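Hi! If you just cloned this repository, the fastest way to understand the data is to look at a raw example. We've pasted two of them here, unedited. The first protein comes first, obviously.
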Amino acid sequence: MKWYEISIKTTEEAEDAISNILYELGANGVVIEDNEIVTRPNLWDYIDENQFTKKDYAKVCAYFPESSNILELTHTIEERLKEIAKYIDIGEAKITVSEVDEKDWAEEWKKYYKPVEIGNIAIVPSWQDYKAEGNKTIVRLDPGMAFGTGTHESTALCLEAIQEYVKPGMDVLDVGTGSGILAIAAKKFLAKRVLAVDIDEVAVKVAEENARLNGVEIEIKKNDLVEGIEEKFDVVIANIVADIIIKLSKDINRVLKEDGIFISSGIIRDRLEDVLKSFEKNSLEIVEVKKLGTWCLVVSKKTV
């Protein structure tokens, strides 16, 4: 299958806002390349930084099916960029369109990833050999066209929180599962039941493949956040973006058991206060806030 790759040259300040726009317009995958890999190697030592060269700009690449109306899509992106340019510096914002084969895309990105250990979890690319030391829990992963490889600060924060809050026998819901990395980790830490949902069909397929790769049984289905979910869970995880977490906070108590824990990440520092206010408004008590780079994780619990 072929995809349209839409690449936007921008600033690091604008990369998250632009990523959100591209996802809203139907992107099946977004890749961000910026200097965090070079300037903060302590956070990115699981990326092969030799594959990157230092730049004075950021690049956001999104992948759309070849069935997309690329002229209309590009025009819409241009208009949306003009809107956000009123509030933040988006730099040159040059848009480049090219065609890419899905297989070639996946193979190209394999060279950037190597195993990473986060606490007692080792995230290992499916194509690499790896021997864990001690009692490390291994999660093998092939990200495909879905977000979530363990290389992003927000995902790393979630993996740390899973090790702290997910206990054997618990029921866990992973909202916006992406590659399935967090759902798989929860199951490997002996959660009794794990339900993983994502609105994107590609993500659902990738998560299913990764679950099989790790030999774990996880319920994975296409779903819009927690809409239609009637069960209650001990832990709900959402590694998404601030706006969606704020929206989700209105419904999260409905799917949490008494004293249930909500692990939310993907929150840029500038939006942390907005998220905290929405939690207070919706009867979620803050347990802890953790920060890594420009990203934040909030752990809260049900109070009503």
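Ok, and the second one:
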Amino acid sequence: MPREAIEIEVPKGASIAVSAGEISEDGGKTLWTAPDNPGLEDMTISFNGQESRVNLFVLTPFRNGVEDTLNGYRIGKYAQPLRNMSSYAVPRGFIDLTAMSDDVRVSPNFKLGQFRCKQQPGHEPTYLLVRPEMLVKLEIILEAANEKGWEADTFFVMSGYRTPFYNAAIGNTTTSSRHLYGDAADIYIDLDRDGQMDDLDGNGRIEKADAYALVALIEDLSAKKDPRWVPGGGAAYGANAAHGPFVHVDTRGYKARW
């Protein structure tokens, strides 16, 4: 959020260059305080001759229940947190995609545009919510998929973020879908870019079994108890007239399967 301070974990002796905001030290912690204005900022961390680049998104504030739109873009209203869980807290702000390229990376193998909500095509500004823990989870799954021999440079994200307004508009009655909170993705592997799931089980057919194969991999990863892995939903979906098989994954904070 604007003017919010966050801790940046860097090696001792590293140098930090940032396009805006302030770098400070507090009790041995390195802090970055975001600038006043929302937008995309760039940070470069240099250490031992190597550089790491971090994209920093300063969010546009949103007042749930007071505002229904942000600059003409329909957001809608968020329900009160499900069972008072922090993972269902009402978002305080959103990424403003105005003048941002869809190719901006939000993690090593995923880009901003992959998670864009499909409502109001061409409307400027457009807003987005993406939670870091979901990106970490997707990267872990992608790495494991490649190790298994399912070659993929990324996942095709069929549906990422949805505003409450859009979620209701497409017929969903739930007010607690993880898509609303920026940590759900409906994905499939599509290395050949033919618009549908690849034949993961090698039987020569594209079917729900391929989605089940990907869910089985997610189950294996969940059992490993990686400290970076946030529990969440996982489900396989079959094909219909509009799309091929896909898998839902999220980081709601507890395991859910359906």
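That's it. A detail worth noticing about the second one: The radius of gyration is 19 Å.
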